[in-house]
Design brief:
The chain is of the alpha+beta class. It is built from 3 helices and 4 strands; from the N terminus they run αβαβββα. The protein has helices at about 5-30, 60-65, 115-150, and strands spanning about 45-50, 80-85, 95, 110. A two-stranded antiparallel ribbon has the order 1-2. A two-stranded antiparallel ribbon has the order 3-4.
Length: about 150
Amino acid sequence: MNLFGVMEVSRSALEAERIRAEVVAANMANAETTRTAEGGPYRRQQVVFTSEAPQSGFASQMLGAAGSPIGSAEPEIGGVRISAVVPDQTPFLRRYDPGHPDADKDGYVSYPDINPVTEMVDLMGATRAYGLNSSAVQAEKSMVSASLDILK
């Protein structure tokens, strides 16, 4: 894999982790939402990552046009993408609050089953992965810069 391929993998990972952090933030913001536009309480959302098929990028097109030496063909590596954001099917939490406008006939209100600790761990994981991919991009940029300095 060449440096441009590595940057593409890091780019896709940065985008996926940004979306993951946004989903976690939405979950935390809606932890007490008892009524949505679809009806019923908010459902916690989960992000599903999948591997991304290699794309024909700039580097592979340049190698193809220049004609790569025999035996030097490297397998192209894809990246990561979000295939879906799916609702969690965990049952709702029921709390007794007969004065609440969304209470049922027995006085219970259904709330989303969102644990703030779980959401914070997910957010920390997304933040850490984003930071690591950002560091990888910076290292790749330094390598490209050093390579250009050598060629001067």
